[in-house]
Amino acid sequence: MSLGAYLIYFVIIMAIPIWAQSKVRGTFNKYVQVPNETGLTGAQVARRILDEHGLYNVDIEEIPGQLSDHYDPRSKVLRLSSAIYHGNSVAGTAVAAHEVGHAIQDKEDYVPLRFRHALVPVANFGSSMAWIFIIAGMIFSATLGLIGVIFFAAAVLFQIVTLPVEFNASRRAMVQLETLGLIHSEEKRSARKVLSAAALTYVAAALVAVLELLRFVLMFVGTNDED
Question: Membrane-crossing residues (predicted)?
Fold first, then answer.
């Protein structure tokens, strides 16, 4: 691959996540200013859905940061950022419901979620060690390069498995919001925009990971051809 092609490639893989982050932050910042008609805070919305599913043991905690919201399956805690926890916005309602979607997945032993959890240590190791083996493969042995590609493939698999987990949590969120009357008809479109924008970050991460894996595979093949 020529220097020009490399530059174009790196610009692309840098631009994709930046665009996705810009999209989600822009959408969130817009709808976090729009109050929901129920007047419920994100914490109250989350508690309502959790209790509806018998998840009384799942606590809700406030954490700092923006868009730092997440569900911790190990401690059974739903953590919401301050703007979501205290705010009564359409964005907060959607985000809180999405995170509860993960808690429901956990309760129901949703297979992709369990698979993703199982991949965490492998993906972390693979993403941190792949480069070392790939570079070593270019210098010493093609076998080391192949090991590096396999390690990175595990990290890519984690990113790909994350997609159905996140999409499913968003679908669950919309169903719960509508079924429990936590969102009115005119707010549904706005909530979906928030959830769709958030999904872009996961799609972007998966796309970049796949592109990087493809590059590593081409590097490995190129090294073998030279040998």
Answer: 6-22, 118-140, 146-165, 194-221
Ramachandran sector of residue 126 (left: φ over 0; alpha: ψ -120 to 50; beta: rest)? alpha
Torsion of CA 113, 188, 19, 211, to 10 degrees: 30
**Each residue's pLDDT tens digit, 134-147:** 888 777 877 888 88
pLDDT, residue 227, reads 52
Structural element, H or E, at residue 141: none
Counting other chains too, the contacts that 146-149 makes at CB distance below 8 Å and 24 or more residues apart are 146/220, 148/216, 148/220, 149/213, 149/216, 149/217, 149/220
Cβ atoms of 112 and 165 within 8 Å: the answer is yes
The single residue of 99, 166, 178, 212 carrying the catalytic annotation is: 99
- The pLDDT value recorded for residue 178 is 95
Alpha-carbon span 85 to 79, nearest angstrom:
9
Is 178 annotated as catalytic? no
CB 143 within 8 A of CB 157: no
Note down the domain range covering 182. 3-226
Are 206 and 160 within 8 A, CB to CB? yes
The domain total for the chain is 1
- Which candidate, 182, 186, 189, places its Cα nearest to that of 96? 182
Output b/e per residue, 88-114; b: 16+ Cβ within 10 A: bbbbbbbbbbbbbbbbbbbbeebebbe
Containing H/E element for 35?
none
User: Tokens standing for 143?
Assistant: 């076998």
pTM, two decimal places: 0.87
